[in-house]
Amino acid sequence: MLNTVKNIWKVEDLRKRILFTLMILLVYRIGSFVPVPNINRDALAQANQQGSDLFGLLNTFSGGALFHFSIFALGIMPYITASIIVQLLSMDVIPKFSEWQKEGEIGKRKLAQVTRYGTVILGLIQAFATTIGFNRMFNVPMVINPSVATYATITIVLTAGTAFLMWLGEQINEKGVGNGISILMFAAIVSRIPQHARDIYASEFISASQLFMAIVKIVVILIAIVLIIAAVIYVQQGIRKIPVQYAKRVVGQKMYGGQSTHIPLKVNGAGVIPVIFASSLLMFPVTIAGFWSGKPWAQWIMSNLNYDKPLGMTFYVLLIIGFTFFYTFVQFNPQQMADNMKKNGGYIPGIRPGKPTQGYLMKLITRITLAGAIFLALISVLPVFFAALAGLPRSVSLGGTSLLIVIGVALETMKQIESQLIKRHYKGFINK
């Protein structure tokens, strides 16, 4: 491991990329503490104590910026929501989007531009709704001297913060290491770990009457976290290999084909994207209800659509499962795969090319994706029950969702670094 880290710094290009990524993360963390103008700090302190579990999860995703109500309070959630909408519309809903999706790199750039515009529009809506909702949610008014100009200023500042985060993520994609948006969310979640540790210490050790039971509880929590991490890594790395045989072809005086290969189907091909998508969409009605905070129906939405409530948890699980299937089939098209194999003289042993191959792949990927989707849903909601049984403070929201994101992003980033090392004949983290 130490040799691998040492080798990273020997590669100049990789060293520059890692340093650039760390610099971007430093800018992100500094911005998380830059306050929005015209905000009452007493109301923010009350928000930390009275906030719902869903807002606590969103606060974790923003690295604490939401309850600080800093310029990055919205985090990158508007960008994620815009990405969801654009991908959904690209599934033959808007023909132009579908056409762009098939154009390769040029089409991706056009869709990325649409996503940026969508991020700004959603950011404006969410910024205004969050400001109104927070101002009405607590006994102490959050906005100082509320007026149209004040609300407009706060909304523009929050939207600009989200747009800046989106730009930072794109800079990491181009000049850094890993997926920029995922890296920013990874940094936000990890930055909350010390605060969660302090909250657990304050509730279990300082105020606990029985020190021995508190220590036992902490040990059990740590064991549960280690088991969850091991399970996530095991499933994330799980692959089903589909054997493929290519027939021999004679072109001129040369013979092509005849080799055997395989199609790797990951158990969790969608990664952590479904969990992020589900969290983002679950937040949307709560944000809209913030416009009418105080109304009975709005209060019902904000109370029952938390992921720790039965209704909210049900929606959360269904969204995770649904988006797992959606994102997997966006990445892996059985019909296109079967057609490409048939054109190149490939076939799966025992399966006829064409439609039978397509049906076989569809059946297989559906089974694998179902297992991965159920696993994602279980890992996301089980820690809610464990936290309730352990009596952890509500401010501690580092549950299965956060662990999934952290582990998934860490694995993907390690793979990218490892691929760069292997190109230069160095051993990586995983391959020994």
UniProtKB/TrEMBL annotation:
Component of the Sec protein translocase complex. Heterotrimer consisting of SecY, SecE and SecG subunits. The heterotrimers can form oligomers, although 1 heterotrimer is thought to be able to translocate proteins. Interacts with the ribosome. Interacts with SecDF, and other proteins may be involved. Interacts with SecA. It is a multi-pass membrane protein. One of its GO terms (cellular component) is plasma membrane. The central subunit of the protein translocation channel SecYEG. Consists of two halves formed by TMs 1-5 and 6-10. These two domains form a lateral gate at the front which open onto the bilayer between TMs 2 and 7, and are clamped together by SecE at the back. The channel is closed by both a pore ring composed of hydrophobic SecY resides and a short helix (helix 2A) on the extracellular side of the membrane which forms a plug. The plug probably moves laterally to allow the channel to open. The ring and the pore may move independently. This is Protein translocase subunit SecY. One of its GO terms (biological process) is intracellular protein transmembrane transport. The keyword Ribosomal protein does not apply. The keyword Ion transport does not apply. Gene3D superfamilies: SecY subunit domain. Belongs to the SecY/SEC61-alpha family. PANTHER family: SECY/SEC61-ALPHA FAMILY MEMBER. Pfam families: SecY. It comes from the Bacteria. NCBIfam families: 3a0501s007. InterPro entries: SecY, SecY/SEC61-alpha, SecY_CS, SecY_dom_sf. Keywords: Cell membrane, Membrane, Protein transport, Translocation, Transmembrane, Transmembrane helix, Transport. It is found in: Cell membrane; Membrane. The chain crosses the membrane at residues 18-36, 65-90, 111-129, 149-169, 176-194, 214-235, 272-293, 313-332, 368-390, 396-414. Its main location: membrane. The gene is secY.
